[in-house]
Amino acid sequence: MKLSFLRRRSKIIEIVASKEVVFALTLSGVCAAFIDGKRVAFMNTTPDEVIRSLFFNKANDSLITVSVFREDNFSSLKCRTTPLEYIRRGQPNEGFALFESESLKWPGFVEFDDVNGKVLTYSAQDNKYCVWDMTNYEELYQLPDDDITEIKISPGVMLLIHNRHPSGSYVTLKLLSIEDGRLLHSFNHLLHRTKKVDFIEQFNEKLLVKQEGEPLHIVDVYTSAVVRVEATDFPTPAAFIFLFENQLFLTFRNRGVAVWNFRGEMVTDFDDHVLHHADTSTNNIVITSAQDYIISYCRQTDSNSGSSMSAINVSHILTGRCVAKITGDTAVAKQALQDVTSIFFNEDRNELLLETGKGCFLSLHNEERCRTLAGYGRSEIL
Which residues pair with 226 in a beta bridge? Predict the structure, then answer.
């Protein structure tokens, strides 16, 4: 099979790995699998398949690809699962399609919830949400699209955010059990009528609500207790990452990172962790599974020349201390770090994988050596 998208070059935008198998997804939608530097398979099953995202399912040791196809003008998402064992044998076509009963045309979507072992799909055509078991892909229950604008998922629960009331004075919120869809709690959260909502986020029983120019409200949904954090102390972040193990959350804003608790207190302000990109792409940020370290693509100022340099920084989340920094010992290595497009930390092998945007992967091991993996070049994939 010849992939039409191999005719043009495209940078790698996502890396996923499990044990010795590494998957690389390009901007043009080509995904290749590698074992110890050798390409063993393309995950595209037809010449017109454009893979949009990857998810490694730890529950059954398989890779899920989310794709679009030319046959319907690339308008519908199609999901496919392939066991890792088949990929090792170079047999990616042995996988099978998922969620075939669902029409996932835009604005339909699929979301994978690794924490709870669930998959959420939305079919705009049928006006329904479905929750699936991630182990065997069986449908667990359905939710009608009853004026729902967004769904947030955290350990054990889902938050349904409904459309703001026409008066603008409140929004209806519902907490459901992720296991069976049972309603746990429903309430109306009061809003300033004339202010837009910057965000509504949920973490277990805590709700984070902020409106434009207003304080952050941290609400206990069961007791209705509210913690207020003034807008000057908590400007609206560009992104959140919730740390379920530590009962904390990370915020990203203007290339900076901070750690907060649910009493509205900043507990960590990193002393050397200026992000390289202002858009806070999560492809360039890794949180270890124990949630004790953050690995990011950062920038720093050269103390000698005063020029800006790129680096991979490893910082302790609770102290903010930078414990390791990869800057490159040679001119070639420094140049390679100028355009990192994706980072992945393979904890099975204690290996950090980088895609440099210059046509190669870099594999960095704990012995502080760096090597280029043969066959990982962009020209090899594309």
Answer: 219
CA–CA gap between residue 52 and residue 205 (Å, rounded): 33
Distance of CA 228 to the CA centre of its chain: 28
Per-residue pLDDT of the chain in tens (382 residues, 90 and over written 9): 555 555 456 788 899 999 899 999 988 899 999 998 889 999 999 999 999 999 999 999 999 999 999 999 999 999 999 999 999 999 999 999 999 999 999 999 999 999 999 999 999 999 999 999 999 999 999 999 989 999 999 999 999 999 999 999 999 999 999 999 999 999 999 999 999 999 999 998 899 999 999 999 999 988 889 999 999 999 999 999 999 889 999 999 988 999 999 999 999 988 889 998 877 667 789 999 999 999 999 988 766 666 778 889 999 999 999 998 888 766 666 777 888 888 899 888 888 888 766 555 666 655 443 333 323 333 233 3
Evaluate whether 317 touches 294 at the Cβ level (below 8 Å): yes
3-state secondary structure (DSSP) of residue 17 = strand
The one-letter amino acid code at 180 reads D
Q: Considering only CA atoms, which of 358, 355, 335 is closest in space to residue 343?
A: 355
Distance CA 50, CA 77 (A): 10
Cα distance between residue 219 and residue 163, in whole Å = 19
107 cis-preceded (ω within 30 degrees of 0): yes
Nearest CA-CA partner of 245 in 281, 208, 282, 288: 288
Model-level pTM?
0.86
Residues 224 and 237: their CA atoms lie apart, in Å, by: 24
Spatial separation of the C-alpha atoms in residues 136 and 160, rounded to whole Å: 25
